[in-house]
Amino acid sequence: MGLKPNKLFQVSETNVVEVVKKNILRQKPSFRWIIHCEVMNDHQAIKAEEKAYELTPKLRDIMQKEIDDNYSVSKKKWG
Length: 79
Known about the structure:
There is one protein chain. By secondary structure, this protein is an all-alpha fold. It has helices spanning 5-8, 13-26, 31-37, 43-51, 64-78. The chain has a domain at 19-55.
């Protein structure tokens, strides 16, 4: 950071945070970080899987009143 300990008391906490943040943003990410954040998709396999999807069958009609009642009971019970 380049600050002497006696000068550090004259700098506000916000300034220190900004300097640290700028230094972190300038640093090149490590190779391990890059590997763990890389997303690799097999688009053909995904399309094949999506074609096999089936709609979930509708079990029954749910009315808004039922949802509201369940919400009210849960809210009273668990807070």
